[in-house]
Design goal:
By secondary structure, the chain is mainly α. The chain has 3 domains: 188 residues, Growth Hormone, Chain: A, CATH 1.20.1250.20; 53 residues; 228 residues, Growth Hormone, Chain: A (Up-down Bundle), CATH 1.20.1250. It contains 16 helices and no strands. The longest helix has 35 residues. The chain is globular and about 60 Å long. The termini are close together. The relative contact order is 0.14. It is found in: Cell membrane.
């Protein structure tokens, strides 16, 4: 039975290690959007290259995150976590010195592999190390610091882009890793799951990531009209069908189809797809809109969205408690509708937009919507499956959110009619942005309708989330399997 106490020196070292590791991945998921215009100018990149700068990371992360958690259970959670941190730092170094968009995109894909190893590992280390009496408090401290990292990410990214340059958005990960790895090796106990056995579903993971990559390519490159577009689209569908076939016939699949026998679990994941598709498109385009059209500096653009994360940090736990009393149906309906209103309010943000009167109202409404829905969404995911499968259910929900975001970043510029050089022209980008926000709003309304029609109150006595404080806008929080004791 794990016996490390939170107040002990070792407990503090473990928390420091896990916070540093998870912060690396969380910072990169939030700060890169702010750096995109500068990356585009410096590397002479097209809009498609900027989309891939975001999506290459998300493809490998979303496709491999479930496999990353399984590797830690089998081979040692500390070992896999450390490998993930070193891998992530090495890929970040390559990003920081990338001489061209192609190299940057390839390095971002490698970053996603590292993120898939360290992201589930940071939470697993806490749950496997701390005494049962301290475990929930430790997870709470970890998620709280992670939320603070998410809050300062865009501000820090904007400051780095404005000051030393966009390359330091990636190079910053190297000193974090140099601090994290020695502490992990010295102070974090190794742990694994003695019940973990059988073959890894590597084929399923590869097919899932390949399907996402091919479909993303087809959406991003569709504007060019190349013959490769329909070919990759068909291959992407074939890979997706093959993924489903493999998962249905594997003895130990990465994504067991039987888990979707729960109608509640299926429903809340459909809501997740709608909600995080809209969020992915919104945060990608808004960071560009504020700089290209409104004329904000990278620092101002990064800081502009800070109230959203601050509201989530302050009120997400209270939102979860309220949802326990009212049931998830109401917050999962109202939350997306508030976010839909926020995206329509963003239509006020144009050339010379004033922050207090044009940007802040939309950001505050957006934050209120995310506060309302994120904690109940996570709770409903956990409550809709057997307790023994809660970690798997959370991982699937997290991966679904990331996949939805990357497909939205690929598809939304196409649907809004953005040309390959749109971000270089303020009038052209502004017009496309005005077409994109109603699309995001409509997707959120669809998510609200699904929640109202399909989500029901969970059975009493079901599992509740341990991560009650949350500030990440790119995916819902991960919840791991709790060790016995």
């Amino acid at each position: 039975m794990p016996d490390v106490r939170l107040a002990s020196p070792q407990g503090k070292w473990i928390l420091l290690t896990t916070v540093l590791g998870s912060s690396m991945a969380m910072l990169d998921s939030t700060v890169v959007n702010v750096a995109l215009p500068s990356i585009g100018r410096d590397l002479d990149a097209s809009l498609a290259a900027l989309q891939w700068t975001v999506n290459a990371y998300m493809v490998t992360l979303a496709g491999l995150i479930l496999l990353g958690g399984s590797l830690g259970d089998r081979y040692g959670r500390r070992k896999v976590f450390v490998v993930g941190v070193v891998w992530f730092a090495a890929a970040s170094l390559l990003c920081g010195f990338a001489p061209s968009p192609v190299v940057l995109i390839a390095a971002r894909a490698l970053q996603g592999v590292g993120g898939a190893l360290l992201t589930p590992g940071s939470l697993a280390l806490i749950q496997a190390s701390f005494h049962p009496d301290d475990r929930s408090r430790a997870v709470g401290v970890w998620s709280g610091f992670g939320g603070i990292g998410a809050a300062i990410g865009p501000f820090l990214g904007g400051w780095l882009v404005t000051g030393p340059g966009w390359r330091w958005v990636f190079l910053l990960n190297v000193p974090l890793a140099l601090l994290c790895v020695p502490v992990a090796l010295r102070h974090v106990p190794e742990s694994s799951d003695e019940k973990a056995h059988g073959r890894f579903d590597v084929l399923g993971a590869v097919l899932g990531a390949l399907a996402l990559a091919l479909l993303t390519y087809a959406l991003i490159e569709a504007r060019g009209g190349s013959v490769a577009v329909p070919v990759t689209a068909v291959l992407g569908v074939v890979a997706a069908v093959a993924f489903v076939h493999v998962e249905r016939h594997r003895a130990e699949p990465m994504l067991p189809p039987g888990i979707f026998a729960s109608r509640q679990f299926t429903a809340v994941n459909l809501v997740t797809l709608c909600v995080y598709a809209a969020f992915g498109g919104f945060f990608f385009l808004t960071a560009l809109q504020l700089q290209v059209v409104a004329g904000y500096s990278p620092l101002a653009a990064g800081t502009a969205l800070l109230p959203t994360t601050v509201l989530m940090l302050l009120f997400s736990s209270r939102s979860g408690a309220l949802a326990d009393r009212t049931g998830p149906r109401l917050p999962l309906t109202v939350g997306p509708l508030l976010c839909a209103v926020a995206m329509l309010l963003m239509l006020r943000v144009g050339e010379g937009a004033d922050y207090l009167t044009d940007v802040l109202p939309a950001v505050l409404v957006m934050g209120a919507g995310m506060v309302t829905l994120v904690a109940p969404l996570t709770a409903t995911v956990l409550a809709s499956v057997d307790t023994s499968r809660a970690g798997l259910a959370s991982g699937i929900n997290n991966a679904a959110a990331r996949a939805a975001g990357l497909l939205a970043v690929a598809a939304l510029p196409l649907l809004a009619g953005m040309g390959p050089e749109a971000y270089r022209s303020a009038p052209a980008f502004d017009a496309a942005f005005d077409r994109a926000m109603p699309i995001c709003s409509a997707v959120l309304v669809a998510g609200a309708a699904l929640a109202f029609a399909l989500v029901r109150r969970p059975a009493p006595g079901c599992r509740r989330p341990e991560c009650r404080t949350h500030g990440n806008v790119t995916a819902p929080p991960l919840e791991g399997d709790r060790p016995p004791g």
